[in-house]
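Comment thread on ticket #2218

A.B. wrote:
> Attaching the input chain for the structure job we discussed in standup.
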Amino acid sequence: MSSTSSTSSTGIGTFTVRPLDPLKDAELLHRWVTDPKAAFWMMQDAGLQDVEREYMRIAAHEHHHAYLGLHDGEPAFLMEKYDPRYVELVGLYDPEPGDVGMHFLVAPTDRPVHGFTRAVITAVMEELFADPDTRRVVVEPDVSNKAVHALNEAVGFVPEREIDKPEKRALLSFCTREQFLAARGVSV
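C.D. wrote:
> Ran it. Output below, let me know if you need it in another format.
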């Protein structure tokens, strides 16, 4: 993944992504992951050092990466990219070449912008598919997170089945490059 990449095709502004700095970005992340709106992130009771440790662990991992997403230059979302052969989904499905796992979290706000979260997930998917080796994006949100299921469907994800992870019951879903483009109305 590039150190930064831009897309303005969402109509809401410019999104850029940069590698997360686990120490410099920890206070910001701590506010985001402990916010009540981030309940599905499962870090509600985390202290600042817990957040630092978690993102230092991710930074040191060969197959898991975290990025800070900016909207018009301001921190706006967190994106994680992982290789499901080694992280999160080991033994829970049969990975295919080109599978990339993804998590994203939009920063909490008191002034929501209509369509913003959909623009973020679209920018995240564009970033993932910018890598020609990415053939399919894999997600495993909590089965009860109906809002993210709707967002996932809007960008082309198709649920496959429910799976049991150590921390949750999850809805395993996939989105190919073609499904993403079709959901955006782009001919393939």
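A.B. wrote:
> Thanks. Noting for the ticket: The longest helix spans residues 116-129.
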